[in-house]
Amino acid sequence: MVAGKKAEIAIIGGSGLYEQEMLENAEEIKVYTPFGRTSDMITIGKYYGKMVAFLPRHAKGHQIPPHKINFRANIWALKELGVKRILSSNACGSLQEKHSPGDILVIDQFIDRTKSRSSTFFDGGQICHISAADPFCPELGNLLINKGKDLGIKLFEGGNYVCIEGPRFSTRAESRLFRRWEADVVGMTVFPECVLAREAEICYSSIALVTDYDVWAEKPVSVDEIISTMKKNVDKAKTLFSAVIPEIPSDANCKCWNALKDALI
What we know:
The chain has helices at residues 71-80, 138-151, 172-180, 193-199, 223-244; strands at residues 9-13, 24-29, 42-47, 50-56, 85-94, 104-106, 109-113, 155-157, 160-164, 185-187, 203-213. With 265 residues, it is α/β, with parallel strands linked by helices. It has one domain: Nucleoside phosphorylase domain (Rossmann fold, 3-Layer(aba) Sandwich). Strands 1, 2, 3, 4, 5, 6, 7, 8, 9, 10 and 11 form an 11-stranded mixed β-sheet that branches. It starts with 8 loop residues before the first strand and ends in a 21-residue tail after the last helix. 46% of the residues are buried. The mean pLDDT is 92.
């Protein structure tokens, strides 16, 4: 563990969420990992008596494209700091008319369409077949949903996230295919992040922040519109995370903390 540094909760910020101003006595630290560099320095500070770590997934200023993110280093570093819970945000495109730009989904399933990402800590020697039947923490998900309702933030309970390799966007044919699969949103970063968190026995929940309709809809959208929507979404994500963190219990009532039981060979 990094000498003297510890956090129980982490926020992984997606596109647009590069800073976390709510933390008191914040300090940036560098965690060395066997998998190389994390996306950025990790900020640790206190919030309502809880030690919280913040990591911008794409680095400050959005310097790392999705297919180059070192997901294993990021999750390993948070585990090394003692993190037991991760809240994350992901900008995405909508695959359904009912999910409008500006909406938020607390996703509960994913479909992996990536091609070249390292998606396990167990590359040999000891083998792990982690269960991904329910890849997101239900306890954290329920907290996000309930607190969102309390705050009057429009949230969709559950959703299927298609994770594509990137950095290119989908073709129209791909987008229409994803709709036929009854997927709700498409993005580039949920996988393998959520699976690695499960292998690390860390509770993980993610909110999908809809910035636009994907190309199936043929609804022209400008970069300025996307950026404006993203900023509003990020503000809502910060409000939601700030409200949820004080409510996170010290002990888990889910199965995330013993996910490796019966998974190792």
